[in-house]
Amino acid sequence: MNISLLGCGRWGSFIGWYLDKIGHNVTIWGLSDAPQFIEIRDTRKNNMLTFRESINVTDDLEKAVTTADVMIISISSQALRSFMPKVAAFDIKDKKIVLCMKGIEISTGKRLTQIVEEFIPEETQVAVWVGPGHPQDFSKGIPNCMVIDSRHEDLKSLLINEFSSELIRFYFGNDLIGTEIGAASKNTVGIAAGMLDGLNLSSLKGALMSRGTREIARLIKAMGGKELSAYGLCHLGDYEATLFSQYSHNRRFGEMFVKGEKFSLLAEGVDTTKALVLLGERYNVDLPICNTVNSVISGEKTPENALSELFLRSVKTEFYD
């Protein structure tokens, strides 16, 4: 397949490397002045990977879009709305779009597929690729399982058949709402886990994981999805990579935040947390973990006080509501 990666951050560049490795024709697109793009273009390397000459590297968006059968978008979730008109300026009627990114629009609470569908023709199909794993592990040959979900069954089958390998085993998602909300919200739980690490309260991660999954399951149900999706790879299955890994940006952000240190990389969970608070209010769902993380990030409460209040909540209220 002819596949274009729109975005050359750590995930976008890894996916380009991976799909080239399993035999697809790959183009990686990035902004001409972006340091990550310049490094790949000039050296065919980044801090994780070496890119074969078979991969085309370009800053020409028209070329990347028009030559692709499948476009995989991997950019900051909050930049998706401003990026889509640039993609939609070209003929994309027969294209397939895969979002390899996790987030919820902060101003509207919309899922990422909802944003994309505002800009594309009816014929253009959209899927999401989410789940556990870090490029740093995959590049070392450490396998994992991930999920592809879409409203289009034929698209899911096509992508899973074309993208699966011994390195990544893909599962069929069957709840697009749950898959997107679960994948995005695990970053908020990751920030909470980092805060516990930073306060030397890592032993509370077990309580955080059980309560976090239940909290997000309630939200997914209220939004029209399936509660059990929160217990799958999109959310609970991604906790190891997000709540414990040294590579998790969100866990690291939470840890450094409570220590008063600045985290300079992208932590999608910061904006996602604000969007989740909005959704909790809209759907009348109690989200104590999301609200606690938001109150700490906003400076409304100190980490010590906020986390203490969170874990003093009634067991009956938490597990039986």
Sequence-ordered SSE layout with sheet pairings:
Layout: E1 2-6, H1 10-21, E2 25-29, H2 35-43, E3 56-58, H3 61-66, E4 70-73, H4 80-88, E5 96-99, H5 112-117, E6 125-130, H6 135-138, E7 144-150, H7 153-163, E8 168-172, H8 176-198, H9 205-222, H10 239-244, H11 249-258, H12 269-282, H13 288-297, H14 303-311, H15 315-320
Helix pairs in contact: 8-9, 8-11, 8-12, 8-13, 12-13, 13-14
Structural class of the helix and strand makeup?
A: alpha/beta
Major sheet, described briefly? 8 strands, mixed
Radius of gyration: 19 Å
**Straight-line distance between termini:** 48 Å
Number of helices: 15
Order of helices and strands: EHEHEHEHEHEHEHEHHHHHHHH
- How much of the sequence lies in strands comes to 5-15%
Shape: globular
- Portion of residues within helices: 40-55%
Give a brief description.
With 321 residues, this protein is of the alpha/beta class.
List keywords for this structure.
15 helices, alpha/beta, 321 residues, globular, eight-stranded mixed sheet
Describe this entry's structure for a reader.
- Helix content is 48%, strand content 12%.
- The chain is built from 15 helices and eight strands.
- It has helices spanning 10-21, 35-43, 61-66, 80-88, 112-117, 135-138, 153-163, 176-198, 205-222, 239-244, 249-258, 269-282, 288-297, 303-311, 315-320; strands spanning 2-6, 25-29, 56-58, 70-73, 96-99, 125-130, 144-150, 168-172.
- Helix 12 (269-282) packs across helix 13.
- The longest helix has 23 residues, at 176-198.
- The model has no long low-confidence stretch (mean pLDDT 94).
